[in-house]
Amino acid sequence: MRLTGAVLLAAAGLLAGLTARRAMEARVRRLTELLGLLELLAMELSRFRTPMPELFGGLAGRTRGAASELCARVSAGLDTLGERTFSDIWAEAAAPLTAEERDLLGPLGTVLGRYGAEEQLLAVERCRHETEQAREAAAAALRDRGRLAVGLGAAGGAALAVLLI
Questions:
Q1: Angle at 19 (CA atoms; ends 15, 29), nearest 5 degrees
Q2: What is the pLDDT of residue 20?
Q3: What is the pTM of this model?
Q4: Hey, where are the domains in the chain?
Q5: pLDDT tens-digit profile of 99-126?
Q6: Which helix (H) or strand (E) holds 34?
Q7: Under a CB-based contact definition with an 8 Å cutoff, are residues 70 and 94 in contact?
Q8: pLDDT at residue number 127
Q9: Quick one: pLDDT at residue 160?
Q10: Which value, to the nearest 10 degrees, does the dihedral of the CA atoms of residues 138, 139, 144, 150 take?
Q11: In angstroms, rounded to a whole number, what is the distance separating the alpha carbons of residues 165 and 162?
């Protein structure tokens, strides 16, 4: 019975470490998805000057994951643009994102659709730069601490297992 408990504790520790690493990987993936959105957004605004409803409807199909979901929510919210401001629609669409992602993308809601193309492009480029920095930091943390998290989880589980035996 003790041996079974010890094995379960060791496995739980390893699982905790793997879960921590997976969360780090998910953060990098989501920031990469949002970065792709920002790059496409900048291209569309600079080259084609696409109106907002068509822009976000199209971007929803050309992006993945969190970025695609954000674009789909913005596109759906644009049906109420006369009743609500774009910044309100943007804030509501960004609500399901993580706090970090909302902080990175939040300033775009006050600029997109309200100012000239140059001001919008500057805001998107600023946001893209900050998101790229966040993604690089997250990737560095994954490289530096990903294996450490798994190792510590496994070691902690093993230590508890030894104490149980």
A1: 150
A2: 96
A3: 0.90
A4: 2-164
A5: 999 999 999 999 998 878 899 999 999 9
A6: helix 2-43
A7: yes
A8: 98
A9: 81
A10: 80
A11: 5
